[in-house]
Amino acid sequence: MNVGWRCCSSIVLFLALQWMVGLQWGAAACSVNLEVVPDTVGIGTFFQGQEVTVSATVPQGVEAVVEILGGSVSERLMRKERWGPLWLNREEVEVEDAPSLYLAASTDPALLHNPSDFREWGYGAMAERIKFHGQGGDEIRRRLVSEFISLKKTQGLYNVFPGQVAGSALEDECPRLRTSFFLRSNVKPGSYEVRLLLTQNGELIGQTGTSVEVRLEGLPALLRSLAQNHPLLYGVLAVVLAMLAGFLIGHIFKGRGAH
Amino acid sequence: MWGIYLPVAGADTSILLLLGLGVGVGFLSGLFGVGGGFLMTPALIMAGIPPTVAAASDSNQIVAASTSGTYAHYRMGNVDFKMGGFLLLGGVLGGSLGVQIIKLLRMMGNADIVIKLTYVLMLGWIGSYMFVESLQSMRRKADAETKRQEGARPGFYRRLVQRLPWKMKFEKCGVKVSPILPTALGGLVGVLAAIMGVGGGFIMVPVMVYLLRMPMHVVVGTSLFQVLFTCINITIMQAVANQTVDLVLALVLLLGSSVGAQLGARLSHRMKADQLKVFLASIVLVVMLQMLISLLLPPKILLVPKGGH
After folding, report:
1. How far apart are CA B201 and CA B224, in angstroms?
2. Which of A110, B87, B108, B128 has its CA 20 to 30 A from that of B273?
3. CA distance B11 to A48
4. DSSP string, A171-232
């Protein structure tokens, strides 16, 4: 009886969600059309970061969260501890499954204000996802998550923007949403997932996604490749160029250099 | 605006800031006749460049300044290649050891704390020494200072130097010592230079003057010769072992520092030496204090990247 009721209620819920999301997504009049402009970000010689704009049409009456996520990376961090009068790096912390970049914005500020309220998006999702090795206890883990997010925020790699998704009124038949994120210059080359999450009453009712590519190009690509794949050649090149520059400037000034 | 992407550091920075740092530190370097690396690396760290990249790239840009200087002094006959060769041998061995120490410390996550501590100690020592010495000189106590230095020289050091075997004459310097001494001293400077990412000139010069007793005009040229090859070795070692040399960063810096050094050297002839030394010592001590405070104050965030600061 209980199993049957659960089964029936699941089907009803599924059909309801299909109606709420699928009906309008599937309908020609109001299909979800998630776009990222530009969809490729090139890191060239004078790259100083790049703004990307995400826009989408959504079903009537839903709220939205837009996220940009980098691929999962493992990081080895050090935890500073007091050692006598000095603050030293004392304890290693291994972090897994942390996205290299996490930026999120929402239509309703409440969706991103309190991280512990939601586990499907925002810092709440980060806390669920990120694993720390060599650490025990929920309290320590909570502190590490908080410290980790703070570290990433200072690096400009994590940030949330409550209520920063703008657009036509949600009461419209097919509201058009739009938000922008600034990718700082320290963003790593790679593929970044762009997700649109639709919510109603704080519950996730549907999602879709696309991607944005970040890649090195021109001189930075050449130099990074040389430094990583041919380090000896790169080192010799660095020395030769410096010596040539030294000779050249010495000749120009015909003076004595400092030491 | 005026930003440039640093491919190894993995972030952009202002060209004007780098050129300004280069010209400023190079100017002070040329003005005071000491190396600029001990100022440049902390300045880069303060500008947000990762410490290991700052140290390695600074070594690279010092190659340019020391090339220019060595060439100029060679033409004036101020380079003792024999003495410089032994100092260089020690410097290469010490520099290689220093790079491996940094690599090991990076694996342990303590590279940058060691860089900072080494800076604090070396800057504190050099800054205090210069400050006191130049103040005393300004008070016309040069004779008393000379006597104090003579008296302060540890007896065991003189005895040790005399006992070292294979003494040989270094013609240009006019000294007769065992080659073990310059090799060992060069090695010590090389280790410190690799850890700090500097050419070692500001350590090498007092070592040559006070421990090897070389005449000042030969000290400058020979120090530049030794610093040049030590930095070549460090740059290549850092590129191979740690991949932390940022060529773009080094090139922009060396443009600024080479020009700044020439301008500073020209101005230095018009100013009083002791006042300049007090000014430089003050700068050195301020940099030292800034670093010391950063180690003493509780950090805002307790997690840092491994190999970070």
Report:
1. 7
2. B87
3. 8
4. TSSS-EEEEEEEE-TTPPSEEEEEEEEEEETTEEEEEEEEEEEEEE-HHHHHHHHHHHH-HH
Asked if B47 and B21 touch (Cβ cutoff 8 Å), the reply is yes
Residue A241 amino acid letter: L
- Contact check, Cβ <8 Å, B73/A249: no
Quick one: residue B299, left, alpha or beta (phi over 0 = left, psi -120 to 50 = alpha)? beta
- Classify burial at A29, counting beta carbons within 10 Å of its beta carbon; exposed 0-12, middle 13-18, buried 19 or more: exposed
Tell me the nearest-neighbour CA distance from A157 into chain B, angstroms: 12
Q: What is the DSSP letter of A107?
A: S
Q: Does B12 touch chain A (CB under 8 A)?
A: yes
Q: Pick the residue from chain B with its C-alpha nearest to A231.
A: B240
ipTM above 0.85, yes or no: no
pLDDT digit string (tens) for B66-102? 887 787 778 777 788 888 899 889 988 888 888 788 7
Question: pLDDT digit string (tens) for A146-160?
Answer: 889 998 998 889 999
- Nearest 10 degrees: Cα torsion A163, A165, A170, A175: 180
Pick the closest to residue A77 from A134, A156, A125, A142 (CA basis).
Answer: A134
Taking the CA of residue B54 and the nearest CA in chain A, the distance in Å comes to 15
User: What's the predicted TM-score (pTM) here?
Assistant: 0.75
- Selecting from B72, B251, B308 the residue whose C-beta is nearest the C-beta of A256 gives B72
Provide the mean pLDDT of chain A. Answer: 82
- Listed range (A11-20, B191-200, B224-233, B248-257) with the worst mean pLDDT: A11-20
Alpha helices by DSSP H, chain B: 15-32, 37-46, 51-75, 81-108, 111-138, 142-152, 155-163, 180-196, 201-206, 216-237, 247-268, 273-296
SS3 B225: helix
Question: Backbone phi, then psi, for A156, in 5-degree steps?
Answer: 75, 15
B167 φ/ψ sector (left φ>0, alpha ψ -120 to 50, else beta): beta
Nearest CA in chain A to B231: A239
Q: What is the pLDDT of residues A25-67, one digit of tens each?
A: 444 456 778 999 999 999 999 999 999 999 999 888 888 999 9
Q: Which of B54, B41, B38 is nearest to B6 (CA)?
A: B54
Residue with tokens 């294979």: B166
CA distance A192 to A20: 28
**d(C-alpha B95, C-alpha B198), whole Å:** 11
Q: What percent of chain B has pLDDT over 90?
A: 9
The residue written with tokens 């050297």 in the block is: B265
Quick one: tokens of B29? 């370097």
The number of CA neighbours under 13 Å toward the Cβ of A22 is 7
Chain B hits for A238, Cβ within 8 Å:
60, 63, 235-236, 239, 245, 247, 250
Is any Cβ of chain B less than 8 angstroms from the Cβ of A184?
yes
Reference A110, options A160, A175, A171, A37; nearest CA is A160
